[in-house]
Structure formats: C-alpha cells, structure tokens
C-alpha cells in the first residue's frame, strides 16, 4: 500500500515496497520529468552513491519517477533534534559534498551555461548589473566537477547511531545537477543555508563555508566571489521571501 511521504502543488512522493514513487501533476511538463530522470541517471553513471533510478512511467495520465527509497531522516530534522551536534553534522555534509565533487559526467549540462541563461532571463536586473555579473562569470576558472545545484539539509538523508552520530549519508533530488566549478556549488549551498537558518542563533552557513575551505584548502574569498553570480541566478525563481537576501548578495561592488 502506498504511503504519501511528501506533497506539494506540483508533485507527491509515495513510499511503496521500499521504493519512492514521485508522481507529478497532470499539467507538469513532460520534458522536465524526463530531464530529471536523465540527470539522476547521469549522476549514477558518475559513480555517486545515491538512490538508484528504477523506472519512468505514466499512470492515469500522470508521469511518475520510481527510485530506490533512501531510508533515514533529513539533515534538517537531525539538526533540529540535536542542535548541539550541528558542527559535526555540517562536517559530514561537507565531506559527502567534497567526495561527490571529485566525480563528473561530461554529458551533464555545464553550470556556466545554465548560470548565463538564468541571469540573462531576469527582467528585473539592470543591464549594467547583468554585464558585471556575466563578466565576472566569464573570468571564473572552468571546471567539470559534479555540482548538485540544490545541496541543502532538506535534500540530505542520513542514518544515525544511538549517540545521534551520522553513520551514513546520501543526497536526493539531483534534477539541478551540472558539471562546473565546485566553489559555485558551495556558494549556492551557503545561500540556501542563509535562507533556511536566518533565525538561528548559530551562523550555520558561515560554519559550512569555513569547514569546506579548511577541508579543501580553498580561500574563502574565492568562494564568496561566486555569491553575486549564484544569488542572481537564484532570483530567476521569483520567490518573494528570498528577494531581500539575494539582492544583497547580487551587489557585485561589495566583492571588487
């Protein structure tokens, strides 16, 4: 018997026989469904340990993607239940991200191309700001590392032991995966953490960036150089609750 474990206006996720069945609304774009399935398969081909894609089908006029079920709890839930262990959890999050960023698949969309398209598509951005952002993007080193595109605690599934320490970790929702510069993906996650934990007494986003830079011997200024670019690209989602923070980071003058 199917059990609904997640639901919004566009899609619902059901658990059945240890599989996760994502059911899309009837008006959901077919090409977007197929792109998500293809991206997931390409991440698998890159050798990342993720819940495997099992099938793509249509049932009662609705597209479905069936994958292995990732048993466990989200990192969001774990941090909420054990805030005293936040630093340890963020370290595990960083370790997993650094590991999958060592992999790549040349068939994945190039991150730079996606960012260019997103920035050019934002009608509310002044043309001079777009020019500065695209100029900055053009100067960034071209890499081919695997980038998740939406790597945040909601998309991270973990298992824990009796001491609430993480024993296994994986990520889901690879629809936005690309090949590109790892620091761009870090900057994007930094923004997601800023948005998710804006009311937290701990600056989890800064903790995350500090741990990544220490683990990879990366200068913090190099990662923050990506912030105006990824913030502008995220503005394409047109989420009112994110507008203030994103506009703050889009101010490229702060990073000259």
Q: Looking at the structure, what is the overall shape?
A: globular
Structural class call reads alpha+beta
In total, the number of domains comes to: 2
Query: Class of the largest domain in CATH?
Result: Alpha Beta
One letter per element, helices H and strands E, the order comes to: EEEHEEEHHHHEEEEHHHHH
Assembly classification? single chain
Strand order of the largest sheet: 1-2-3-5-4
- The third-level CATH topology of the largest domain is Aminoglycoside 3'-phosphotransferase, Chain: A, domain 2
The largest pleated sheet is described as: 5 strands, antiparallel
The radius of gyration over CA amounts to: 18 Å
Q: What is the number of helical segments per DSSP (H or I, 4+ residues)? A: 10
Binned strand content: 15-25%
Could you state the CATH homologous superfamily of the largest domain? Aminoglycoside phosphotransferase (APH), C-terminal lobe
Q: What is the CATH-assigned architecture of the largest domain?
A: Alpha-Beta Complex
Total beta-strand segments: 10
Low-confidence stretches: none
Distance between the termini: 57 Å
Mean pLDDT comes to 94
Write the layout of secondary structure elements.
Blueprint: E1 3-7, E2 11-16, E3 19-24, H1 30-45, E4 53-59, E5 62-68, E6 73-74, H2 75-81, H3 86-100, H4 111-120, H5 127-139, E7 145-147, E8 156-160, E9 166-171, E10 178-180, H6 182-196, H7 204-216, H8 220-224, H9 227-234, H10 243-250
Antiparallel strand pairs: 1-2, 2-3, 3-5, 4-5, 6-8, 7-10, 8-9
Helix pairs in contact: 3-7, 4-5, 4-9, 6-7, 6-9, 9-10
């Amino acid at each position: 018997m199917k059990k609904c474990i997640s639901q919004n206006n566009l899609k619902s996720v059901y658990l059945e026989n240890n599989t996760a069945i994502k059911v899309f609304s009837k008006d959901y774009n077919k090409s977007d469904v197929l792109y998500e399935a293809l991206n997931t398969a390409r991440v698998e081909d890159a050798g990342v340990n993720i819940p495997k894609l099992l099938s793509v089908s249509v049932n009662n006029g609705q597209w479905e993607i069936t994958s292995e079920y990732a048993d466990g709890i989200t990192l969001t839930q774990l941090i909420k239940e054990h805030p005293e262990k936040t630093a340890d959890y963020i370290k595990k999050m960083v370790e997993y991200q650094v590991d999958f960023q060592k992999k790549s698949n040349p068939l994945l969309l190039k991150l730079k191309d996606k960012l260019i398209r997103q920035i050019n598509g934002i009608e509310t951005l002044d043309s001079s700001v777009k020019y500065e952002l695209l100029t900055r993007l053009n100067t960034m080193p071209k890499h081919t590392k695997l980038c998740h595109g939406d790597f945040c605690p909601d998309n991270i599934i973990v298992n824990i032991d009796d001491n609430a320490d993480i024993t296994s970790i994986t990520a889901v929702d690879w629809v936005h995966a690309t090949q590109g510069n790892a620091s761009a993906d870090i900057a994007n996650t930094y923004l997601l953490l800023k948005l998710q934990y804006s009311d937290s007494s701990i600056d989890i986003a800064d903790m995350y960036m500090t741990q990544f830079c220490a683990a990879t011997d990366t200068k913090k200024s190099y990662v923050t150089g990506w912030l105006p670019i990824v913030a502008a690209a995220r503005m394409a989602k047109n989420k009112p609750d994110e507008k203030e923070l994103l506009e703050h980071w889009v101010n490229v003058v702060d990073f000259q």
